[in-house]
Amino acid sequence: MEYRIIPIEKFKLDLENPRFIVPSGATQADAIQYLIEYEDIVALANAINSYGGLLPGELVIALAEDDEYRVLEGNRRICACKLLLDPLLIPEKFAKIFPVVRPETRKNIGLIRADIVTDRISAQPALAAKHIDDIKKWSPLSKWKYCAGAFNDGHSITEISDVTKMSKASVEKGVKNYFMMEHVVNLKNWSKEDLIRLDFQIIKPTVFMRLLSSKSTILNGSLTSVINLRHHPKTR
User: The pTM is what?
Assistant: First the structure.
């Protein structure tokens, strides 16, 4: 794995990060809004500013995409640095409480060292090793999204189970639940008002999934197109 020194503006937050509960079609601004509201970016920015830069040992892993770099590890740190250097990116309701960058900090966070990967799969061992304990503390939706993303990237249920230490049954259930929820949220018959209410920061996804159980008739069988993993080759 090679490393590069990268200008902060070249980094893009990873909208596929399993911990980002953002809507389909989300933007970088949506990711910033989510992180500052739910991932304590103000406190992190204060710590970075007080120290005068990123703390030693804080790893950034990025996926090279043409002339940009998608952050696979270190989204909170990169977000905090971006907001410190460009206050116009700070959501309005947080502008007054966000720290003003110190000259020393500004000098040290304009260029960030990152380990570079060419695809998500090659980064998976490093990410898993770092987050294996964190995964246990994630919300159900974040676990489902992580499992579904790894499955889509070509990993089998067994491989995901080995990496996360979740049982195979939990991994399979997580993949199914995420695919089903994604399918339902993307149905064409939702109104704009319905989509606003489908905020999974407010709605507990486990409750939402109970409404979509096999006994539910709410959607009149519209879930039959959801992938059946039980006979999928990657579940073995």
Answer: 0.63
